[in-house]
Amino acid sequence: xxxxxxxxxxxxxxxxxxxxxxxxxxxxxxxxxxxxxxxxxxxxxxxxxxxxxxxxxxxxxxxxxxxxxxxxxxxxxxxxxxxxxxxxxxxxxxxxxxxxxxxxxxxxxxxxxxxxxxxxxxxxxx
Length: 126
Description:
four-stranded mixed beta sheet
């Protein structure tokens, strides 16, 4: 009987601890400014606009990495990156895809160049 109780206790502990190992729904992102001038007013979000991550400025040849939580997302959509170039031009980059509120990729990287922005996604996360 004692062995049986121990095995139940161990099973319950494993079940509870596994709940903490589940990754939060969302996507890691990195923005690298390869242009000669800073970019400002950076925003990264999904089309549902439930969480909008805001970054004031990324200097030339600098980068920033963050995590966009999507724990409350419910529908299908895409990711949006907005930023303002030094000359005042506002750029909006719509990219990627998520479904049923869940990210399909583990990460996305944006490389902001002088006249364009390159976007690369990881392999699918499922």
